[in-house]
Write a structure and sequence with these properties.
Blueprint: H1 4-40, E1 45-49, H2 52-66, E2 77-80, H3 94-102, E3 108-112, H4 119-130, E4 134-140, E5 155-159, H5 164-187
Parallel strand pairs: 1-2, 1-3, 3-4, 4-5
Helix pairs in contact: 1-5, 2-5, 3-4
Length: about 190
Amino acid sequence: MTPPFLQQAFVEAADGLYQTSDRLAHHLHAAAQAIVHCLTSGGKVLCAGEAEGAWLARQAAHLLIHGSGRPRPPLAAVAVSGDWGPGQSVIPGHLDAQVRALAHPGDVWLAFSLERDEGELAIATATAQEMDLTLVVVSGEAASVLGPMVRDTDVWVPLPGRQPTTLFSTAWLAVHGLTEAVDAHLLGEEL
């Protein structure tokens, strides 16, 4: 017999996804539209996060460049990070410097926040906003780190849950849904 505490996290995650699936799909659709508008206008997508969020950013950039299974040319996306790698410390100001070096007005700043202490991500997001990038923020419903920066012209993708592990697992699904939606906008829906 499986102990109930092992099932609890899965049950809560599934329940949260079920209850918010329509809303989440709506926000991912809006995020995909913003990304497609940027890319078809000659811009690029800068994907960012700290810690596990940096991993999500790398996956998003990889899927935007290589696609989600359908043949298409690579899209202009790059993952930026203040981390040196797993288990390494964040280099203060490194993420912000990358925004200043790589970003241009009209680009998209795709940021992943797991609602932790993400000071470098917040600073870089403020810089992206100052440089007139469109913010696409994927975060928890609390939106405590990046939420205050989201403008009416930006897109916020609220993920159900409060625990970083739940947010991470949902964000992983959202990354795949988002990149598939971008492909559908560019290539049409698969039959």
